[in-house]
Amino acid sequence: MLAGTIAAVLDILPDVDRWRADGRKVAVATVIRTVGSSPRPLGSKMAVSDAGGISGSVSGGCIEGAVIQEARSVLEDGLPKRLLYGISDEQAWSVGLTCGGEVEVLVERLDA
Amino acid sequence: MSSRFESLRRSLLAGERLVAFTRADDDALGARLLVWHDGRSEGTLRSPDLDRAATTLATGQDLPATGLLEIDGTEVFVENFEPLPQLFIVGAVHVAIHLVHFARQLGFRTVVVDARSAFATAERFPHTDELVVEWPAEYLARTRLHDNTFCVFLTHDEKLDNPALEVALEAGVRYVGALGSSRTHAKRVAALREAGLTPELIDRIHAPIGLDLGGRKPEEIALAIAAELVAVRSGSEAGDRGRSAGLASAAELVAVRSGSEAGDRGRRAGPASAAELVAVRSGRLPGGER
How far apart are the first and last CA of chain B? Predict the structure, then answer.
């Protein structure tokens, strides 16, 4: 089923629309590669506004904090980033996830 | 760097089919090309060769799956935006109330259409995405029926069902199912032939509608229909009615024979296992070997 891809956009759309209507800058992170079992499918999206708003998700919670951090600089300079997160089994266990594997995320700023 | 977000947003909300290509390499990270299924495009991957290759991929028969792809040695992230499945339910009948419930849980956008304002009320259908009081054939004729559209006909009234069935069949939607016994369906087939539809088109109607779960209550019939929609959407054989009646019942015998085994495997959570429970309770299993 491919509808997951469009669902990922529609999920964040109400928040993104509202933020943009308020004149906020918005960055979107997209899961572009996964290795091993991963909690969110390819194409999953998380949006971050320059006012601190967060919508959607790119993992089961293990990398969101790091991605939001990176999104701040993308919001500032507008330069996209490709980020690789390895989730070792040990780390995964310690945060209560069974995922393991790797996730790659592309973060970009939406056009004004 | 241009995200093309506005165009993407507009197209997705309009139910258009498109593929987004995004450069994932350092040379032009984030460069994006949108290609619609009809060949229209917007943006660029900053290389005419890449743009050309991507356009070919996005307008062919087999669309690429969402994921990273290497095109001419360049890493490109592909997003295949298939329109959300939409379900038109013709007939605001009792079964429809339950079907809206199941279908929405399963990710379908639901529209209920009936000319009879006594049935098509917001009170009966507070849960549907859209409720339309209009002649179904007229409504379907002026509505965008994309290739991820499913239509079910439940009115029990051939004056309402048949003209609308013609519109859906001629539009080439993904699924057409009609409620009614084999006898009712035989009458329907005769009427549609009379109206000039080809046997091939008429053959696309799933009737009697739904996977054979054996249930008779409105909610059980709705679940059988919902199960068939899922089977068709996932390309499962259970949703394929190309089989002759004889083959279908043979498959059913196999399903019943291997019943305990299939019942043991907790295959899916949610509505799918609900379908299985109804099937087991009615002493039947859907569709045979899946």
Answer: 47
Strands (E), B137-206: 149-153, 175-178, 205-206
Query: How many H helices and E strands in chain B?
Result: 11, 11
Q: Å from A32 to nearest chain B CA?
A: 6
* Maximum Cα–Cα distance across chain A: 43
Nearest one of B131, B136, B124, B133 to B97, comparing CA atoms: B124
| Overall number of domains in chain A | 1
Return phi, psi of residue B220, to 5°. Answer: -75, -40
Closest CA to A111 of A27, A1, A4, A7: A27
Cα B213 from Cα B9, distance rounded (Å): 40
Which residues in A lie closer than 8 A to residue B6 (C-beta atoms)?
111
- Contact between B252 and B238 (Cβ < 8 Å): no
Q: B86-209 has which fold? A: Rossmann fold (3.40.50)
Q: Which of B10, B69, B70, B81 to mutate to test the interface with A (most CBs of A within 10 A)?
A: B81
| CA of A2 vs chain B CAs: smallest distance (Å) | 6
**At A103, phi and psi to the nearest 5?**
-135, 135
Report d(CA B285, CA B252) in Å as an integer: 7
- Show the domain range for A10: 3-109
Q: What interface predicted TM-score (ipTM) does this complex get? A: 0.90
Which chain A residues have a beta carbon less than 8 Å from that of B1? 78-80, 108-109
Binned average pLDDT, 10 residues per bin, chain B of 290 residues: 84 88 97 94 97 95 91 96 91 98 92 97 96 97 90 94 96 95 94 95 95 92 96 78 40 42 38 63 52
User: Which chain A residues touch B234 with a CB distance below 8 Å?
Assistant: 1
- pTM reported for the whole predicted model: 0.66
Structure tokens at B103: 């279908």
- Estimate to the nearest angstrom the gap between the alpha carbon of B170 and the chain centroid: 16
What are the residue boundaries of the structural domains of chain B, listed by start? 5-81, 86-209
Q: What's A108's DSSP letter? A: E
Return all residues near A48 (Cβ < 8 A) that are at least 6 apart.
Answer: A26, A27, A28, A29, A54, A55, A67, A68, A71, A72, A75
